[in-house]
Design goal:
With about 300 residues, this protein is α+β, with helices and mostly antiparallel strands. It has two domains: about 5-165, Ribosomal Protein S5, domain 2 (2-Layer Sandwich), CATH 3.30.230.10; about 170-300, GHMP kinase, C-terminal domain (Alpha-Beta Plaits, 2-Layer Sandwich), CATH 3.30.70.890. Helix content is about 35%, strand content about 25%. Strands 1, 2, 3, 4, 5, 6 and 11 form a seven-stranded mixed beta sheet that branches. A four-stranded antiparallel beta sheet has the order 8-9-7-10. The relative contact order is 0.18.
């Protein structure tokens, strides 16, 4: 095989109370990468579409090519000739793992071209290199679920210990991206470095409840556990009418509601697709009344991860 085209999914990181340790993949949106092996040594990015010129084409400065370079060095082929075309099919700076989706698509593509030398889990550290470039910190709560599919818990970072969690049947996501700018670095810098023990105890209980709910397929327990007293109160300041959107979602059947990643995207868990559509429609109508444009996605949990396109 000399060329391949790959789709990699967007992700919802943190899942409200699981800051930096929990994430899930969704079916839409996502990014696509077309990759070819060439005779000429080195990695070249030939084309990027859908980014409005915001992403660098220099191989050393793009998260896709950087991660691929780390992968090739690891397998002993640092000078392999690779051409990359990146098709952005999701908004940048949305809190939906935009850089993660691109990076994962590239790694999945090169790994397939090399005969699948590494497992999805083994690719995660290379994807984290891309996240480090994108936001200054190599976290795994986006790239791990994008590569592995479903819900993934980062049990520890040193050493990296990833646990794939079960996905309850029928669980859907309602996602709305208000088109306002919330840079990931700025959102991360707002978070307190120290927390009160009593607050930490509440947070531990919520993350334990959420994980238990996934294993038990208890949607009510999942909803009751989707509470964050550490990060959401700070990051929600950057998101227009966050608590009104939360009220709309909960009044229209959401199990729980929160910020996707660093925002500004917000999401709700629901019991079915129709409820997700109803929630996104009502939240978008509210944002329109504030003269804020938005994009919406309704999706089941993506339990597969990246896929090869025809």
């Amino acid at each position: 095989m000399q060329s391949i085209k790959v789709f990699a999914p967007a992700t919802i990181a943190n899942v409200v109370c699981g800051y930096d340790i929990l994430g899930l993949a969704v079916n839409a949106p996502g990014d696509e990468v077309l990759m070819r092996l060439t005779e000429k040594q080195g990695i070249v990015i030939n084309k990027i579409t859908g980014d409005d010129g915001r992403l660098p084409t220099a191989a050393a400065k793009n998260t896709v090519s950087l991660s691929v370079q780390h992968y090739l060095a690891h397998i002993g082929k640092p000078d392999l000739g690779v051409e990359i075309e990146l098709y952005k099919k999701m908004p940048i700076g949305s809190g939906l793992g935009s850089s993660s989706a691109s990076t994962v698509a590239g790694l999945f593509a090169i790994n397939n071209l090399m005969g699948n030398l590494l497992t999805a889990e083994e690719l995660v550290p290379f994807a984290m290199k891309g996240e480090e470039m994108a936001c200054g910190y190599g976290h795994a709560d986006n790239v791990a679920p994008a590569l592995m599919g479903g819900f993934v818990l980062v049990k520890s970072y040193d050493p990296l210990d990833l646990i794939r969690l079960p996905t309850p049947s029928g669980l859907h996501c309602a996602i709305v991206f208000p088109e306002v700018d919330v840079p990931t670095r700025d959102a991360r810098n707002m978070i307190r470095s120290k927390v009160l023990l009593k607050d930490a105890v509440v947070q531990w209980g919520n993350i334990a409840g959420l994980v238990s709910g996934l294993f038990m397929s208890d949607l009510d327990l999942i909803g009751r556990s989707m509470k964050d007293i550490l990060v959401e109160p700070v990051r929600s300041i950057l998101i227009p009418d966050f608590y009104k959107m939360k009220e709309i979602a909960l009044e229209n059947g959401a199990l729980g509601f929160g910020i996707s990643g660093s925002g500004p995207s917000v999401f709700a868990f629901t019991r079915d697709e129709q409820t997700s559509h109803n929630i996104t429609t009502k939240i978008q109508a509210h944002l329109t009344s504030l003269n804020i444009t938005s994009q919406a996605y309704c999706s089941a949990v993506n339990t597969v991860g990246p896929k090869i396109l025809d």
